[in-house]
Amino acid sequence: MADATAMETSADRRRRRERFLRALNKARAVRNQVRPRQARAARMRRAIHLRTFSW
Fold first, then answer.
1. Are 7 and 15 in contact (CB under 8 A)?
2. Do the Cβ atoms of 41 and 34 come closer than 8 Å?
3. How remote is the C-alpha of 6 from its chain's centroid?
4. 34 vs 16: CA distance, rounded Å
5. End-to-end CA distance of the chain
6. What is the value of pTM for the model shown?
């Protein structure tokens, strides 16, 4: 099994990562539609965090 993962190319990794990120974004979009109040609260928390975060 280690040989199979070692043979994976960077293009394969990128494709797999893109597929994962698409699925993740789709799942987040569905969750935001199903629970809009929770999604709004999360957006507000994130906005406050970004405003108060000190670089």
1. no
2. no
3. 25
4. 27
5. 42
6. 0.57
Asked whether 32 and 39 are in contact (CB, 8 A), the reply is yes
pLDDT tens per residue, range 5-39: 668 899 999 999 999 999 999 999 998 899 989 98
Rounded Cα distance between 29 and 19, Å, is 15
Residue 42 to residue 48: CA distance in whole angstroms: 10
- In degrees rounded to 5, what are phi and psi of residue 16? -65, -40
Residue written as token pair 């957006």: 43
Element (H, E) at 34: helix 10-34
